[in-house]
# Entry
Amino acid sequence: MLKRPTVILAFLLILSVAAHAADGLEQRLGKLLDEAERLTPLRTVAIAHKGAVVAERGYRGHSPARPANIKSASKSIISALVGIAIDKGVLQGTDQKIAPLLQANLPADADPRLQQVTIGHLLSMQAGLGRTSGPNYGRWVASDNWVRAALAMPFDDEPGGTMLYSTGSTHLLSAVLTRRTGRSTLELAREWLGPQEGFSITAWDRDPQGIYLGGNQMAMSPRSLLAFGELYRSGGMSRGGRARQRPA
# Structure
């Protein structure tokens, strides 16, 4: 956990960057990035204003160009792909039920509530299924079928109820995308998000059936994450003016 002086410094850094960008004083960011080095957990910083990188820095041997495991930040990639799939008509919408899409992996004694779970429930982590994250993560990824294991988790709440943070939910979305398109989630990411200049996924783990892990174990560089964020800032327009489907 960050100590209070570190948190205060981070807050002041954010305020100062916002003020400098607004005033067109990007050249003063160098001093702020020098001060940011005091945040010992910090590895890289990349700052953009209106689509242009105005400053970036790597600390303690790290670089904004070097890929790193972005862990659960990869869940945002999955949600964007789901949004684009809906826009393209590959998926019907957030109210679409997942059971018919993953029929082959439903448990033999499936809880009837699985028939109520929707794509929207998985996106908001309100499926009601028990969590595969936290203390359950190791056992889940040690199973021989991660999709089936996620669907077999006992219900801890009703679909649409409490948010239960679970990588299993986003992995089910990766499986849905793969089943509906007949293509891997990595292929979809490279086609649908790849035209954005600077976007690249350099490594990504898969489950025993070859489905890319929805929501963990993905490698991207800070520059690539910045390029991904730029798609949201620009309303789905890639650099160069090419229209993109608006991410969810």
